[in-house]
Structures are given as C-alpha cells and as structure tokens.
Design brief:
Number of strands: 11
Helix content: 10-25%
Order of helices and strands: HEEEEEEHEEEEE
Number of domains: 1
Strand order of the largest sheet: 1-4-5-7-8-9-10-11
Number of helices: 2
Strand content: over 45%
Length: 199
C-alpha cells in the first residue's frame, strides 16, 4: 500500500512539474507591430495579391522542453483586412469574404502540437470563420527566446498554412479568385501581463 501511494505521489509530482514548464507568451498588433498575419491569393493568374489583418491578439503557452505540451489561441478582427492600403479594395475584400457585420472575429485554437525537431512543429487546430469551424494544420517554427533591447524577454515564432476557402463556405467570385489561400504568420510575443506597447 505504501509503495502504491508513493508511486501515485511521484506521478502527480512529475505531472505537475511537466505542466509547470509551460509559460504563457502574449502577442498582439497593438503591443508590437512586428506581429503579422498575411494571406496570398492568385489574382486571375496575373500576380499574387497579398493582404494583412492588422488587428489580432492571442496567447502561446510554450513548453520549451516538450513542445508537444504547448498550445496557442488567437482572435482576429475581420474588419482589419488591409489590401495595400487601398480603401475600396480593402472594403470589398472584407465584405465579400468575411461578412464583418455578422462575424466580427475569426478564432484559431490549437488541438495538438507535433514536435518535428529543431524547433519545427505541426500545430493542428480549429479555425472559425463566418460561423464555420474547420480543422487546419500550421507548419510552425519556434525561432528563439531572447532579450529584446531594454524592454525584456521576447519569444519569436513563424508559421505557414494553405487553406481552401470554400471549406468555410467562402465562395465569392471563384471565377476570378481561386479557392487556395496561403497564410504567413510572424509572431513576436512578450511574457503574458508584461506591458510592451509600441515596441
């Protein structure tokens, strides 16, 4: 009985220690302009048009020693779509694809993280757009943690993904804009609760 109790206690302590390794890192465009969420689509085969979401935030729970114990969530303001700072183009993109009057935010929440080695990860999660939630996979990279100027510690991440927009029922002007959308994400995060505006 004593041995069983000791084993249970050791397991609980080990589990608690493992959970405690995860640290929360917060990111937002309001805190740091280096945070970027970009998307790319073919423009009738002539070129690739790129757009940005200029207002988003989230939290990464990072376990450096066990990346698979990490997680991330983010919320994106669909009204913040910016197409080359062109007002008409930006408004058309918002209204044709994201219906911001009825769905003002998109949300991503990870469901699992697979450690691919050397800081690379596959992050599976649920992406909600216009009221529809589908699973996607991000090819992500934990770049590094380091001191950022005189502000404090910062953690850097990069990620990419390719989506089929019709999976979310976004099927406007398919004769002009194809289904595939490529995503590029660059994140620079500070410890959660640390004020770092304008850096």
């Amino acid at each position: 009985m004593r041995q069983s109790t000791s084993l249970i206690l050791a397991f609980c302590l080990a589990t608690s220690a493992n959970i405690a390794k995860a640290e929360n890192w917060a990111f937002s465009t309001a805190e740091d302009a280096h945070n970027m969420l970009m998307f790319k689509v073919s423009h009738q085969g002539f070129s690739n048009s790129m757009g940005f979401f200029t207002d988003f935030y989230g939290v990464i729970s990072l376990d450096e020693n066990n990346l698979e114990n990490s997680s991330v969530w983010a919320e994106i303001n669909t009204n913040s779509v910016d197409m080359a700072q062109h007002e008409v183009w930006s408004n058309n993109t918002r209204n044709q694809f994201f219906d911001p009057e009825n769905y003002s935010t998109m949300r991503f929440e990870s469901t699992s993280v697979t450690d691919m080695g050397d800081g690379s990860m596959e992050i599976e999660g649920d992406l909600s757009i216009v009221g529809i939630t589908k699973s996607i996979t991000l090819d992500a990279k934990f770049n590094r943690i380091g001191q950022y100027m005189d502000v404090g510690p910062k953690a850097g991440f990069s990620a990419t993904a390719s989506l089929n927009r019709t999976d979310w029922g976004i099927d406007a002007i398919l004769h002009l804009i194809p289904e595939q959308v490529d995503i590029v994400i660059e994140i620079e995060a500070f410890p959660e609760g640390m004020a770092a505006a304008d850096h």
